[in-house]
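Milestone 3.1: sequence recovery, worked example.
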């Protein structure tokens, strides 16, 4: 399974800030969106999907860690310093799965961007809010794994915060899996998601690092990602040239397989996981399960598009802004 599980905000208010006061109010607005996105409830909805499909492995993107604390001396810190955990999406998902009798554990977590800002919520209430982006791999209990790896890419994009360029690292994680007498490698990653003139080139370089890094093996490979790349971009072409098969395209050559994103308006920079119109904003195919080696594709399906997949809260929320993918293979 591959799932971008949505960090709760696109951070659009913070990134649009031109002054320190705007950054403080923007960080508060972004964090309020995180609260409204109800990560604990969405973790329970995701756990239901995982339990229903019972994948051996789950590649997670935007498996975010949010922390808060008393404001310190600096209004911005990279990396962040505050330690009180408000939302650990990986642990919440593990607990939600265990509560359903589905036992999975996170075996690899890669920390990407780690940044903190003082958020001004008004009426004298301020908090340091720390955001840590992560990718992670969950493994079902009883699955034998080895050779855990996790790294950040050398190639990376940047954003300007109050006129200062801030590096935005992405990363990958991988494990080797023993299945009967066979072994294969499972990789997950979240490629550059910043929309600027360099993004396509950055994603292509990150893909090159995957191909020369964890994918450089004689083992069969499954690679799950929010690749932020529509076919036939350079990223997609690189994967195909390297011998990888686009599992969705092979299994469903006549279906678009769109996976992004639940928005009430596709042009709205802030995702609305309460969107009651599931197809309004599902306009791009950004998420993939790639395979290389003697795998036979038995099935691949999208997740998180049926209204019954939503949380039981009011309002009912989609598990994520992205749709998930779940695939079944045989390995002779």
């Amino acid at each position: 399974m591959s799932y971008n599980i949505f960090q709760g905000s696109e951070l659009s208010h913070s990134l649009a800030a031109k002054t320190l006061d705007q950054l403080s109010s923007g960080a508060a607005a972004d964090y309020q969106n995180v609260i409204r996105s109800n990560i604990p409830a969405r973790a329970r909805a995701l756990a239901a999907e995982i339990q229903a499909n019972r994948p051996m492995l789950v590649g997670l993107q935007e498996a975010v860690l949010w922390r808060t604390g008393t404001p310190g001396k600096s209004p911005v810190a990279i990396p962040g310093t505050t330690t009180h955990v408000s939302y650990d999406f990986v642990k919440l998902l593990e607990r939600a799965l265990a509560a359903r009798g589905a036992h999975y554990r996170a075996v690899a977590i890669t920390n990407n961007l780690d940044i903190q800002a003082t958020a001004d919520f008004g009426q004298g209430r301020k908090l340091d809010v720390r955001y840590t982006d992560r990718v992670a791999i969950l493994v079902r209990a009883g699955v034998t794994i080895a050779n855990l790896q996790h790294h950040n890419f050398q190639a990376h994009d940047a954003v300007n915060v109050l006129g200062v360029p801030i590096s935005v690292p992405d990363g990958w994680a991988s494990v080797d899996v023993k299945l009967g007498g066979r072994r294969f490698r499972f990789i997950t990653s979240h490629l550059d998601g910043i929309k600027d003139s360099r993004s396509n080139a950055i994603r292509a370089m990150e893909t090159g690092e995957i191909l020369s890094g964890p994918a450089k093996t004689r083992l069969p490979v499954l690679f799950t990602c929010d690749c932020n790349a529509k076919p036939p971009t350079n990223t997609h072409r690189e994967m195909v040239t390297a011998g990888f098969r686009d599992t969705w395209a092979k299994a469903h050559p006549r279906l678009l397989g769109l996976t992004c994103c639940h928005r009430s308006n596709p042009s709205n920079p802030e995702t609305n996981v309460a969107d009651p119109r599931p197809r309004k904003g599902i306009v791009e195919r950004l998420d993939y399960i790639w395979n290389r080696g003697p795998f036979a594709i038995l099935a691949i399906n999208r997740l998180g598009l049926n209204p019954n997949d939503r949380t039981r809260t009011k309002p009912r929320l989609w598990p994520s802004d992205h749709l998930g993918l779940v695939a079944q293979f045989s390995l002779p």
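The longest helix spans residues 20-36. The chain has one domain: 2-63+84-108+138-330.
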